[in-house]
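My main concern about presentation is that the manuscript never shows what a single data entry looks like. The format is easy to grasp once an entry is in front of the reader. For illustration, here is how one protein appears when written out as sequence plus structure tokens:
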Amino acid sequence: MHIGYHRWWSSQLGQEMELKVYGSTGKPMLVFPTQEGRFFEFEDFGMVEVCKPYIESGRLQIYTVDGIDAQSWTHPHMPVPARVERYEQYERYVIQEVLPFIRENNPGHPERILTTGCSMGGYHSANFFFRHPDVFDSLLAISGVYDLQLFIGDYMDSQVYFHTPLFYLRGLKDPKQLKLLRESQIIVSVGQGAWEDKMLEDTHQLERILIHLGIPAWIDYWGHDVNHDWPWWRKKMNYFLMHLKI
């Protein structure tokens, strides 16, 4: 299995950013890290090993990016508007720098790509997917939060609103965007065990919104023994990869 390490100065973020690539061809899958996690955690916690059969068969190519949570949503002292501004710089980094890199690195797959993440990575993957359905056609969000209350409390303004899936999806009316989302693969999963309470609540809300919008999605609730932790996330990744069209 080919593994590549890449690092460059991000003009959008004003700092060096790192990522890793696993595989040489196949459907690109963009992986966001957990809260304040790094680009290498997907490998370190055994998720790449779970994906290995799909990578080595040429069906899947994985890109794991760094996050900047500590510079944005989870920064304890930064005013919320400044956190949003920094997160939007991160969004531009992904869309304007990482996505062109993926297309250049994998020219055989020009179609839209798959995105995934666990916990805070579930939030990032869902937010990018729902905001950019012209870029992403598949979502696998595991144990994610879909609002930002854990990090910013009840604060709300127009910028925060449009980075909160449980808010902006309720008002989604654009026919083109709805069409793209209705044609996409959406898998959202959560456990009902330890540390999953907020994620479970958000997933129920997201399910109701998607049903109201007529957007097909597989919302999968796992048992009361299923905790918010890597051993279960590895099991979920293995299970859902068998069902994704890649």
About this structure: The radius of gyration is 17 Å. The mean pLDDT is 96. The beta strands are 3-10, 15-22, 27-32, 60-65, 113-118, 136-142, 185-190, 218-221.
